Amino acid sequence: DKGGYKHFMAKEIAEQPVVMTEVLGHYVKSDGIQFPNQDIDFKSINRLTMVACGTAYYACFVAKYWFEQLAGLPVEIDVASEFRYREPPITSGTAALFVSQSGETADTLAALRYCAGKADKIIAVVNVPESSIARESDVVLPILAGVEVGVASTKAFTNQLMTLAVLALEAAHQRGRLTDAELGDYLENLRSLPGILNTALGIETRCEEISLKLAEARDILFLGRGRMYPLALEGALKLKEISYIHAEAYASGELKHGPIALVDQHVPVIVIAPRDDLFDKTVSNMQEVMARGGRVLLVTDQKGAEEAGDGVWETLIMPEVDAFFAPILYAVPAQMLAYYTAVAKGTDVDQPRNLAKSVTVE
Ligand code: M6R
């Protein structure tokens, strides 16, 4: 049932504030973080290996920043299809964490089986608690996003991020990197996210307008820095998946090492950059693009829009959010720009060609 929406994807985008609230309520109680019936000891762990595919891999990529910065835990991330055949050494003190909406992705499951017996702990972050990945893990953290029908993952991504954010905070707290008061502040920020994301859904009309122009492009570039780099990757994946427009994402700083050669007036460049401590760097990358005739769509907040200066092609203004958890909020423009571009092109949004919801063969 599409609940009055034109596509499941639109419905699932709109459901995000509700399912985010649900998953927070499950893991965050009035007296702090709880992982019901699960035993996770981050003090005995010295390395975290996170493995997944597609959008779930990008959730791992965002979480890498959180775990490293908050918990001081070295994190390795990899796509499952590479990880499983590389046969990397799993050193003592390693926890292996697998993220999967379906819990049935063949490569992710194979990577998990490779780690079984080698890693100190196998952790699964899944949407389907009775899935194979969940059954074969020591610790299972459901993301409680509800059934996701659209092939393009949306609410599962934001709830994967919510779950991983809580886990990173727990790791930081256990490892003595956060005091009770500091943890309380971070949790307060997390609690405000569903409401802010609800406000962010208001960018819909602007996304629809801008997407009419994006739909004419043959190639689109996405740029992001730091915690926003994985969001650029996610935006490019969403766009190519459902609109069939060729899209690539780069870390902003990599631009001048090659990709800038692609820039001309025909290639829209989508820059995902809230006004954070790296904003100035991104602005200078943006200016390099504009100096070569590139059309920049800047996705930022009010302050960022004011500081960006002239010459920007389009600006999409997001609500203010704590910089640390901004990647969760900026999933919305990544999803909506892809959605409305696909709608403008008339493609099959929920069942894009050549793709399956669950990739159970390698
Ligand atoms: O079920 P999983 O989370 O393991 O699936 C992983 C990917 O196949 C999936 O995220 C895919 O990239 C999505 N279609 C992206 O929207």
UniProtKB/TrEMBL annotation:
Which residue range or ranges hold the SIS domain?
Answer: 38-177, 210-352
- Keyword annotations of the record: Aminotransferase, Cytoplasm, Glutamine amidotransferase, Repeat, Transferase
Output this protein's name: Glutamine--fructose-6-phosphate aminotransferase [isomerizing]
> What's the stated role of this polypeptide?
Catalyzes the first step in hexosamine metabolism, converting fructose-6P into glucosamine-6P using glutamine as a nitrogen source.
Range of the intact protein held here: 244 to 605 of 605
Report the superkingdom from the record.
Bacteria
Location(s) in or outside the cell:
Cytoplasm
Q: Its quaternary structure?
A: Homodimer.
- The EC number on file is 2.6.1.16
Q: Does the keyword Transferase apply?
A: yes
Kindly state which reaction or reactions the protein catalyses: D-fructose 6-phosphate + L-glutamine = D-glucosamine 6-phosphate + L-glutamate
Source organism: Marivivens niveibacter
* Active-site feature positions: K357 (for fru-6p isomerization activity)
Where does this protein chiefly localize?
A: cytoplasm
Coiled-coil region(s) at which residues?
A: none
What residues form the membrane-spanning segments? Answer: none
